[in-house]
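ok so i was messing around last nite and threw this chain in just to see what happens. nothing serious, just curious
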Amino acid sequence: MLAEVAGEMLGLCQRTIGPSIKEVRRLLQDNGISITPTTLCFSSGQEIEDFVRTGHRSPPGSSSHTAWPTRP
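result:
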């Protein structure tokens, strides 16, 4: 999913961005850097853009920009 969304946002195909993601993961691991995963999940670049712009997450598949809370 990461490769799909990152590729969409950068205008690259999954095949192009996949090796770069793998290399970044390896570099982080080699240098003892861990990143705590977020509890938020996004399935498209548009969902990420909307969240960054508004601070709220729209329901998956929603064409409207009605926000819902990011935490219960």
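not much to say yet. Confidence is low (pLDDT under 50) at residues 63-72.
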